[in-house]
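Hey, I'm writing a tutorial for new members on how sequence and structure tokens pair up, and I'd like a real worked example in the thread rather than a made-up one. If someone can provide the structure for the chain below, I'll link this post from the tutorial.
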Amino acid sequence: MVRPVLAAVAALAFSGPALAHHAMDGATPSSLLEGVLSGIGHPVIGLDHLAFIIAAGLLAAPRARAWLLPLAFVVASFAGSLLHLARVDLLGGETLIAGSVVIMGLLLVSLRRIGDHPFAALLGLAGLLHGHALAETIIGAEPTPLVAYLGGLAVTEYAIAAAAVFGWRLLSRAWQDTMPRLDRIAGAAVTAVGAVTLVLNLAG
């Protein structure tokens, strides 16, 4: 079961970087609707971003603050986007993003639970990097589509993480004994996405 999953996500990861910044066919959003649609689309079509957010939700799910912790990523992602708009560069962006995906995947595979504060710090640091990268397509946009993009992006990021929390908790009611195995399978898939993306980035 694990091998087909890993093969599928690895194949998708090769196309992920090419799609990650083309929710509007590479064009800068020029209206409120385009801004919202682009903001909704980018966390979904960028497989590395999507994998990280899902992993964040799965890792948060067993915790008492499960619904709050993903906000660390969302808020930091918003700040990272603002840094990009302010022309502030972050070194090692795409490479570090891929590395953050690998780390999240390995945490799922290992079933190791770090404290809430270190976990929130990890989400915040990664959020800065992810948000900075996701702001690339709105450079030069007018204020209305720009704000719409950032709003759509933030709502979508949290919705994905919250859906992962909800799904994990729903499944755990019926399959409590199976959840560690499912976490490991999900972690292996996330790690594969991050590893392939990392290799592609390092290869140029």
